[in-house]
Batch of 2 targets.
Target 1
Amino acid sequence: MIARQLAKIPAMTPRDNLLASFKLTPADLEANRMGHLGDGQKRRILNSGTWTLVGFIGLTLALWAIFYLVARRPFVPVQWVLVGGLSAIMLVAGARNFHQTRQAVADDRVEAHVGTVRCVRRRNQGWFVLVNGRDFALPIRPVGIAEDVPYRVVVSPRTKGVVSMEPA
């Protein structure tokens, strides 16, 4: 029964897999070919920056809650300095990412790199794609990306992140 249902589903090509993974529409691809971000890509980049900032604010609040609930009282100056410093670092990192994504959308430019790709995972940094001797952050897991096959990799120069990929 399940085998019959699966047989009715058309097989996806590697290109279709990438389009689905990046949530791209034909309009996004056309805009990328013209050197611009598509509307869907702009929305996803803005959402990414917003949710990253919200996450950093949440971590900061969690840090203060732990400090308040767990730390021994009375609080000493070194505790205030430590928690305040960590909070400042987290908020600056979140604000920097938020600002960077806003700049990327306002800039609206993309760069295309054509060449064979290799995907690498960097500890604590996520996946990166290497193309033409340069590396760019990959927002998806590289499932279905064949290594040593030519791809057209489209990158936002502000975020240094891949916004779309398709076989060349």
Target 2
Amino acid sequence: MTSPSELPPPRPVLRVLSELLLIAVTIPGLFWLGYGVVDGFAIGFTVFLVLLTAAVEYLPALTERIAAQQAADGGVARPARWFDILGVGWLLAIPFAPLLGWITRSAIDLDRSNWHWWLGLSALLCVVVPLVCVLPLLRYVRRGSAGIALAILAVGTGFPVATRAGGIGL
């Protein structure tokens, strides 16, 4: 683990916010230019990129701060368990579940005989997988960072679900 003195100096907040805003405007604009529509997948992918950029910017310093607090409190980090791999599934489900749903929808012709198979696959990929995979991550929500952690989990889980909410009758 690196010490706080080894971390690069933080960049100005205004610059980081301007980069996040640039991503938030550019990606839907590219979808609109390329496909003529900004749908749920475009929004979900944009939010994923914004969250990923914010995480790369702020997580190293946050990790060091939390580690220092744990060391000062004499706390021990929680051991990893087998179901923690679901957190990786959750992170991958944010952009790729809607993408896979979109690909499968584009690859087949819907008719009366197969619509329920596509609907079931779409609900599994975009609703069940994110909701199940987020559950083990809730144990990492702590007092000091509960607000931002819950917001990230809610937004990250909400976008794949939102891309298919209209298609499953929610």
